[in-house]
């Protein structure tokens, strides 16, 4: 007991040594509780050294030398131990470490979040089970044996060690597979590789050959095959009569099948259409005949072939004319049913030179027609080339457009500069109002479309820019009713310029020569009253004149000279006070003779136009292109519309959307990166929303 | 005389069987369908107008409580069931499609401060002003049997909030400390406290299930990990003198707490509750200014504001688990059911209707920058007093901004830094 006490005291003193503190005063009064640290004992005043305690250790033989050495070192060192950190600081460190850990853990969602933000469509709830058919193994795996019959069956199955699940190998087979030596396995693998490679080559070749569209190629190919086969068959007859007989039977069977089927009977869709066309089209007729011939050939009873017949078959095949294989000459690409000469071409177009007529007479009628079509097509193509503006014209137009563009850009930049100045001046409120997503809240309730219209009036859109002065002048000029002249019909004036032919390919214009004349006369009659072209030219010049800047006259009579009626201001005055403004930018239609392009800005449209480049777009071209592509079904096919109008988030009606489960999305680190498949999309839940809470 | 006939193949326009769809020959040649942009613009404008006309978000109101509603919770497994707790200690279970109360329980004396549903949907927990946590069975007791909780835990102090773990049998409460409880034990497994604040709200992260956050009464938000022994970090979002101006919500990335990711501002009074949509793209907030607002998670302003004449201070709000509805409980004893998407047509849609709505939505999105479309799409009705408050706030904000600008103008360049709206709000991050 005393010993223990001693040890305690010495230990305490040791502590006191380490941390030099104030020595506690001993209390002398009597008290109920006696502290264990202040029990008086022997040798209280003496200090106990570590060596006193550990002295015995030195003597005992059991302690290792190492510990003895450490103890000696400890004894010799005079330094005091450092103070342990206070509670606040330790906690802070702990928190810091824990926070780092959590941060790292949370960061593993980064990829998934990024993926989901980029995803075109997300379907909730996530991880839906596919409703399609399941594999047998999947069904079996989740199936529990219930009835005694099932139990028996399963016992039998497991007894024979038959595989039930995916690797369809018995244990014995697996073992035998494992038993194969390395070399054997290598050889086997090489063989398999070779076989696979060969197979893939063969497949590729077959695919390539199958893709060839030429009918002729296939025909030749088939013929070669048949020939080959017949050769083989001949040999077979000599060498292996039984095999030949079997082949013969096979042939007979195929013949029967051919007879039973409706193939090549001229009863299919294609054949019917051909039958309709056969009256008009020789090629169709020929195609039909060819098919019938094919049928006849295929259904012919096969006799043991002799050389003569073989030849005859070949001949029969040879007689099929080559042009049958050529694609049909479609006259009108828009309307393939229009085979006859339905459109009436201009006389100079359709007229044919005498030589051509002579040659045409030599050919038969159909060929003549075909040839004529060909010629017409060529002529039409040439015509269309004429219609398309030549290089020079195009360049001119481009120049005009580029000029306009530069001007527009200049104007834009000026405008933006002004705008930025204004905002710098402290007019930020408008910008703030305009901020994207900000609701415009007001006291007007919208209950019907009429209310929305009213809303239009109440909430005035941004002030519309006033068109510049010369433009208004132009507007006034145009608003004047053009005074009409009554004059006799002057055919030369009516048709001063050759009108460009307008083609309407969809209208079956069946017009005869006489009718055409009639039409011309009708047109003439219709335009009898007005001189359209000269009117137009005058109109244009008037607009141009209105657009030109007027000279501002600021001369005041009587200043510096005599005034009075009929006095002209002197030259110097005129020179000084008549101000010429800078010429406006060239008109867009300056180089286009038969076009008037109005450069006015219409106020009614302006309120519907976008005045500032919206946020995500970098330039106007980008924005315009985003607007230009239509998404409606009027312009796009059904699938395209479906794709384009796909909603971003799809939810299933009446299904609970559970939060993501981490294990489903973030695989353990052992799986390679390639295996990571993020099945679906997830709500972004890393961010906590923090809110300002002050409950009443 | 030659007779020329236009000949068509009937196979190209006649159906083979009556079950085939009608073949509609359509030529997509763009020259035949000119003016695609103006036509689509007209359609977009009409779609926008119709969207506003059909925007009738209010679905139903559930009345029956005899005091203000303090908390609402969804059933974990059933879409049609919710529970609400009132300020008189009453808890009611509701059936949403039938709009009726299924069961009423006098759960606590004083306020019911928080309700949470167990993840399996068999029981729910309530905490109240009487310092107790009670666990109740979801199923009502039989006829003539008294309503009694499965479990009652008596705590040392008032609990102000409760939330349940997503997959395990633990839950967390807050009051003077944030405590984590095991369902099987009557004393908390762990309690966190940082300083001497009391906490008003605590919530588990539904995805990272071991993380939780709490709001303390000293305006701070504290982050915890249940696996750690100490809380992780504390943010002090704003200064006291600024409170008058910031009735905003702040989204933080928990990895970078020094600056909020987004400041969501539109409310004109204190925000009392918030709930994320199950898709995680939007959230709804309830405010003391008698409105509910729906915010996209990454936008600074709300996309929708709901209010009715009779709805008073909204105390709690929840987003339904199928992402279709929003529930709000307010001071005047009613629970209101709103559509999450105001102009959406409810119920099953035919394929053509669906296609049309998708097309219209896309059109509105495409032409959203056009002034008329934007103006109509953004218009919302607001009651006069809220509008007035909003204007007032804007004025104050503007004045403050102007003053700051002037100070900057008249002081040494660089001495008054230009702070963004986000940077203004965080006072300190305590490690």
TrEMBL record, chain A:
InterPro entries: SSU_processome_Utp14. It comes from the Eukaryota. Pfam families: Utp14 (PF04615). One of its GO terms (biological process) is rRNA processing. Coiled coil: none annotated. Keywords: Nucleus, Phosphoprotein. One of its GO terms (cellular component) is small-subunit processome. It is found in: Nucleus, Nucleolus. Its main location: nucleus. Residues 412-439, 462-487 are annotated as: Disordered. Belongs to the UTP14 family. This is UTP14C small subunit processome component. It comes from Cyprinus carpio.
UniProtKB/TrEMBL annotation, chain B:
WD repeats lie at residues 62-104, 264-295, 307-348. It comes from the Eukaryota. One of its GO terms (cellular component) is small-subunit processome. It holds the Pfam family Sof1. It is found in: Nucleus, Nucleolus. Residues 340-426 form the Sof1-like protein domain. GO terms for biological process: maturation of SSU-rRNA from tricistronic rRNA transcript (SSU-rRNA, 5.8S rRNA, LSU-rRNA); protein ubiquitination. SMART domains: WD40 (SM00320). CDD domains: WD40 (cd00200). Keywords: Nucleus, Repeat, Ribonucleoprotein, rRNA processing, WD repeat. Belongs to the WD repeat DCAF13/WDSOF1 family. This is DDB1- and CUL4-associated factor 13. It comes from Cyprinus carpio. The lineage of its organism: Eukaryota, Metazoa, Chordata, Craniata, Vertebrata.
């Amino acid at each position: 007991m005393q010993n223990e006490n001693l040890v305690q005291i010495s230990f305490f003193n040791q502590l006191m040594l380490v941390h030099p503190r104030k020595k506690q005063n001993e209390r002398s009064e009597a008290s109920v509780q006696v502290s264990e640290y202040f029990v008086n004992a022997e040798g209280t005043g003496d200090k106990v050294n570590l060596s006193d305690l550990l002295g015995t250790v030195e003597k005992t033989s059991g302690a290792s030398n190492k510990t003895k050495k450490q103890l000696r070192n400890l004894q010799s060192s005079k330094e005091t131990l450092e103070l342990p950190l206070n509670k606040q600081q330790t906690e802070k460190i702990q928190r810091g470490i824990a926070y780092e850990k959590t941060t790292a853990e949370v960061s593993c969602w980064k990829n998934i979040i990024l993926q989901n933000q980029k995803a075109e469509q997300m379907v909730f709830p996530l991880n839906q089970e596919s409703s399609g058919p399941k594999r047998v193994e999947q069904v079996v795996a989740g199936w529990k044996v219930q009835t005694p019959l099932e139990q028996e069956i399963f016992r039998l199955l497991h007894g024979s060690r038959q595989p039930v699940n995916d690797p369809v190998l018995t244990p014995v087979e697996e073992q035998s597979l494992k038993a194969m030596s390395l070399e054997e396995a290598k050889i086997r693998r090489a063989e398999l590789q070779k076989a696979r490679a060969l197979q893939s080559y063969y497949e590729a070749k077959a695919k390539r050959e199958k893709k060839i569209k030429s009918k002729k190629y296939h025909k030749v190919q088939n013929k070669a095959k048949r020939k080959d086969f017949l050769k083989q068959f001949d040999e077979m007859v000599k060498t292996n009569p039984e095999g030949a007989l079997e082949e013969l039977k096979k042939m007979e069977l195929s013949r029967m099948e051919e007879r039973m089927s409706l193939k090549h009977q001229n009863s299919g869709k294609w054949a019917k259409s051909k039958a309709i066309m056969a009256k008009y089209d020789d090629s169709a007729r020929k195609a039909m005949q060819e098919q019938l011939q094919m049928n006849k050939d295929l259904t012919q009873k096969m006799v043991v072939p002799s050389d003569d017949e073989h030849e005859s078959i070949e001949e029969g095949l040879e007689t099929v004319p080559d042009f049958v294989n050529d694609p049909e000459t479609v006259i009108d690409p828009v309307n393939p049913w229009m085979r006859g000469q339905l459109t009436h071409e201009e006389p100079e177009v359709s007229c044919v030179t005498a030589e051509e007529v002579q040659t045409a007479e030599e050919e038969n009628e159909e060929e003549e027609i075909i040839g004529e079509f060909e010629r017409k097509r060529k002529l039409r193509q040439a015509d269309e080339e004429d219609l398309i503006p030549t290089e020079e014209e195009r360049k001119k137009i481009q120049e005009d457009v580029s000029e306009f563009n530069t001007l527009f850009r200049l104007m834009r930049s000026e405008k933006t500069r002004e705008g930025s100045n204004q905002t710098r001046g402290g007019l930020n409120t408008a910008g703030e109002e305009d901020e994207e997503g900000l609701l415009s809240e007001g006291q007007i309730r919208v209950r019907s479309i009429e209310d929305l219209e009213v809303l239009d009036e109440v909430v005035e859109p941004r002030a519309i820019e006033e068109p510049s002065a010369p433009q208004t002048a132009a507007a006034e000029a145009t608003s004047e009713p053009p005074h009409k002249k009554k004059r006799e019909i002057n055919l030369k004036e009516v048709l001063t310029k050759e009108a460009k032919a307008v083609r309407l390919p969809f209208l079956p214009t069946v017009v005869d020569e006489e009718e055409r004349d009639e039409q011309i006369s009708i047109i003439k009659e219709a335009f009898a009253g007005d001189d359209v072209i000269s009117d137009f030219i005058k109109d244009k010049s008037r607009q141009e004149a209105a657009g030109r800047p007027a000279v501002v006259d600021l001369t005041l009579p009587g200043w510096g000279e005599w005034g009075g009626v009929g006095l002209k201001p002197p030259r110097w005055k005129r020179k000084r006070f008549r101000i010429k403004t800078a010429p406006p930018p060239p008109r867009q239609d300056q180089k286009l003779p038969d076009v008037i392009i109005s450069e006015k800005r219409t106020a009614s449209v302006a309120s519907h136009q976008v005045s500032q480049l919206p946020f995500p777009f970098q330039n106007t071209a980008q924005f315009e292109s985003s607007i230009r592509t239509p998404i409606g079904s009027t312009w796009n096919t059904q699938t395209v519309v479906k794709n384009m109008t796909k909603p971003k988030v799809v939810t299933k009606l009446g299904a609970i959307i559970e939060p993501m489960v981490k294990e489903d999305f973030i695989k353990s680190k052992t799986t390679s990166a390639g295996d990571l498949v993020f099945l679906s999309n997830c709500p972004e839940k890393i961010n906590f929303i923090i809110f300002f809470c002050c409950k009443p | 005389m030659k007779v020329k006939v236009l000949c068509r193949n009937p196979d190209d326009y006649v159906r083979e069987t009556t079950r085939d769809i009608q073949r509609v020959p359509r030529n997509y040649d763009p020259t035949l369908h000119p003016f695609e942009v103006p036509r689509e613009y007209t359609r977009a404008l009409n779609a926008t107008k119709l969207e506003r006309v059909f925007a009738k978000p209010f679905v139903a109101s559930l009345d029956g409580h005899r005091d203000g509603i303090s908390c609402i919770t969804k059933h974990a497994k059933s879409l049609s069931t919710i529970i609400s707790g009132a300020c008189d200690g009453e808890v009611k279970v509701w059936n949403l499609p039938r709009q009726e109360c299924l069961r009423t329980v006098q759960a606590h004396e004083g306020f019911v401060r928080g309700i949470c549903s167990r993840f399996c949907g068999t029981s729910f927990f309530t905490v109240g002003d009487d310092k107790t946590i009670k666990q109740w069975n979801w199923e009502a007791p039989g006829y003539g049997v008294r309503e009694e909780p499965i479990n009652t835990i008596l705590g040392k102090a008032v609990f102000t909030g409760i939330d349940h773990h997503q997959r395990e049998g633990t839950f967390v409460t807050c009051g003077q400390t944030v405590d984590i409880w095991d369902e099987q034990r009557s004393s908390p497994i762990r309690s966190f406290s940082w300083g001497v604040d009391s906490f008003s709200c605590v919530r588990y992260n539904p995805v990272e299930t071991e993380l939780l956050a709490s709001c303390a009464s000293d305006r701070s938000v504290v982050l915890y990990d249940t696996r750690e022994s100490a809380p992780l970090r504390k943010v002090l979002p704003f200064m006291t003198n600024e409170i008058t101006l910031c009735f905003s919500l702040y989204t933080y990335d928990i990895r970078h707490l020094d600056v909020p990711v987004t400041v969501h501002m539109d409310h004109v009074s204190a925000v009392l509750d918030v709930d994320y949509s199950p898709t995680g793209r939007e959230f709804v907030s309830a405010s003391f200014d008698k409105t509910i607002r729906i915010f996209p998670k990454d936008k600074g302003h709300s996309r929708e504001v709901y209010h009715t004449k009779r709805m008073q201070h909204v105390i709690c709000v929840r987003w339904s688990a199928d992402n279709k509805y929003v529930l709000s409980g307010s001071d005047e004893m009613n629970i209101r059911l709103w559509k999450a998407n105001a102009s959406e047509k409810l119920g099953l849609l035919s394929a053509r209707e669906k296609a049309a709505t998708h097309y219209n939505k896309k059109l509105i999105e495409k032409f959203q920058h056009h002034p008329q479309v934007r103006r109509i799409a953004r218009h919302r009705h607001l009651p006069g007093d809220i509008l007035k408050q909003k204007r007032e706030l804007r004025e104050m904000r503007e004045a403050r901004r102007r003053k700051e600008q002037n100070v900057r103008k008249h002081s040494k360049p660089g001495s008054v830094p230009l702070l963004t709206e986000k940077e203004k709000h965080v006072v300190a991050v305590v490690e």
